[in-house]
Amino acid sequence: MRIGLASFRRFGAGRLGERGFYASLLLPLIALAGICAWFMLPEPSDAGDQGVWPVSSATIRAAQNTATGAQTAEVAKDALAVPADEPATVGVATAPPAAAEIQPSEPGSDRLPVDKLRIASQIWQRGGLGSKALVTMTLRNANDFAVKDIEIACAFIRRDGSPVTERKRLIPDTIAMKSRKTYSRMLIGFVNVNANKAKCTVVTASRL
User: Fold this and answer.
1) What does R_g of the chain's alpha carbons equal in angstroms?
2) pLDDT in tens, 111-137
3) H/E run at residue 205
4) 118 CB neighbour count, 10 Å cutoff
5) Domain, as residue range, for 2
6) Domain holding 152: CATH number?
7) Does residue 156 form part of some domain?
8) How many structural domains is the chain composed of?
9) What is the model's pTM?
């Protein structure tokens, strides 16, 4: 009888020990599953109790058309705006500038009158107690036109060739084309007493 009671106690204690061991393993698993379920629950919305009414597609389309129309009107207004300091040119046709008429040039019109006007001969002498230069020269006009208002320049030099002075003289006369004319004892101006030689050249002339 004692042996049976002891065997029962050992068997019962072994069964209870196994059950306690399984229970100790099962409780943490249940707790972990509860925590995971808690984190997976959805969070409450910030909207609270406010009701969200569905918006129809017609309302959305009308709002988009209104915004697009306002933007288009604003762009058109900016495009038509003209600054105050600039003239308005919208819709105004400007005529192209007229081409400058090119007149045909006559043969020899681009040639200067002095190109074929030269001094054929010249000689000078003193006058007025030796202070005045008197020049006798012949001008030849080989141009196909007459010339007038001939300006000449005469350079006076010493015997050694060093320059002394220079004088200019305008001849208010006309020389016909293909002709020559001689001017005798023409006063050029006052010169230095040391001047020994003179050489005159044509500077300018006008076409007649």
Assistant:
1) 62
2) 688 989 999 999 999 988 888 999 999
3) strand 197-207
4) 14
5) 1-36
6) 2.60.40.1820
7) yes
8) 2
9) 0.47
